[in-house]
């Protein structure tokens, strides 16, 4: 059985690992990128079902990533990680 992939894009290693652990415990496969350009490459390569990202990441802002991956954006859900709150915002990027 193939597990869905969740792409995590977060510059802070501690926060990235926390998000990673939560999703792995929920039986998802995860992939972590610590900057925007690496995250974009990983999105194209892995075609994740969900992208969880910070808005402030090195190389390119999180709000710009969906526009750099339009083919994937059509099928993946993009969620913003709210640093300091430990929540994932529920709105889609448009």
What attributes characterize this protein structure?
94 residues, 4 helices, disordered C terminus, alpha/beta, globular, Rossmann fold
Task: Write structural notes for this entry.
By secondary structure, this protein is α/β, with parallel strands linked by helices. The protein has one domain (5-88): Rossmann fold (3-Layer(aba) Sandwich), CATH 3.40.50.2300. Helix content is 34%, strand content 24%. Strands 2-1-3-4-5 form a five-stranded mixed beta sheet, sandwiched between helices. It is globular.
Task: Offer a concise description of the structure.
The chain is an alpha/beta fold.
By DSSP (H or I, 4+ residues per run), the number of helices equals 4
The count of strands amounts to 5
CATH architecture: 3-Layer(aba) Sandwich
Largest sheet: 5 strands, mixed
- Order of neighbouring strands in the sheet with most strands: 2-1-3-4-5
| Span between termini | 32 Å
Residue stretches low in confidence (pLDDT < 50, at least 5 long) are: 85-94
Kindly report the average pLDDT value. 79
The amount of helix comes to 25-40%
What is the element string, with H for helices and E for strands? EHEHEHHEE
What is the global morphology? globular
State the fourth-level CATH superfamily: Response regulator
Q: Radius of gyration, rounded?
A: 12 Å
Q: Could you say what the CATH topology is called?
A: Rossmann fold
Strand content: 15-25%
């Amino acid at each position: 059985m193939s597990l869905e992939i969740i792409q995590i894009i977060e510059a802070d290693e501690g926060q990235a690992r926390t998000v990673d652990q939560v999703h792995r415990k929920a039986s998802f496969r995860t992939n972590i990128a610590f900057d925007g350009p690496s995250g974009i490459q990983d999105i194209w390569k892995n075609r994740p079902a969900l992208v969880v990202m910070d808005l402030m990441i090195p190389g390119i802002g999180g709000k710009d990533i969906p526009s750099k991956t339009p083919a994937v954006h059509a099928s993946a859900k993009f969620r913003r990680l709210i640093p300091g709150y430990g929540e994932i915002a529920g709105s889609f990027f448009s």
